[in-house]
Amino acid sequence: MDRNSVEAAVRETVAEAAGLDSAAIDPDADLVDDLHMDSLAVFEVVVDLESRFRLRIPDEVIDQLRSVARISAYVERELNASRHA
After folding, report:
1. What is the model's pTM?
2. Per the structure, how many domains does the chain have?
């Protein structure tokens, strides 16, 4: 899956959890501060992405994934690492 596909999927998942239009989400917007998502909504995003991409996002990493751009980069890195493992 290429970078644009990953970002589109992450943006769609975040938009659904935040109740926003995916086109309106800036990739660098902070999920909590800018998009006003609570911890339950962020957890929902994590669970959805883990299911969609068949990967595990460790709890200690979740706090660092505060934007679509950061989440996309993380997912892309993990997908590439699993392909080369």
Report:
1. 0.92
2. 1
CATH of the domain at 72: 1.10.1200.10
DSSP 8-state secondary structure symbol assigned to residue 20: S
In tens, the pLDDT along 51-69 reads 999 999 999 999 999 999 9
Residues 11, 25: contact at Cβ < 8 Å? yes
Tokens 């975040």 belong to residue = 14
Q: Which two tokens stand for residue 70?
A: 């950061």
Residue 74 in contact with residue 65, Cβ under 8 Å?
yes
Considering only CA atoms, which of 40, 45, 47, 44 is closest in space to residue 67?
A: 45
